[in-house]
Design goal:
This protein is mostly beta strands and about 80 residues long. It contains no helices and 10 strands.
Length: about 80
């Protein structure tokens, strides 16, 4: 698992379930990921997003609560050297 996680991010459990992150996930500053959600490979979580539902692979989400924004994956945000 190789992810880019910015400052101010909170990843926390809820009722005993913790998030599961895929490979090459990008998490923007201030984002919150809560509960037993699955974050797919190469997903992008926008700044200050609140994720409470699963995020499919290669999808960009943002907002409160997080919702689909684009079919754009993390390749443009995570350089080859970081993978």
């Amino acid at each position: 698992m190789n992810c880019r996680i910015h400052a101010g991010v909170n990843i926390g459990e809820h009722r005993g379930d913790a998030p599961r992150l895929g490979n090459s996930v990008y998490i923007g500053p201030g984002a919150k990921i809560v509960g037993g959600v699955n974050i797919g490979d190469a997903a992008v979580i926008g700044a200050n997003a609140v994720v409470v539902k699963d995020v499919p692979p290669g999808i960009t989400v943002g907002g409160v609560p997080a919702r689909f924004l684009a079919n754009r994956d993390s390749r443009y945000l995570i350089t080859q050297a970081e993978r």
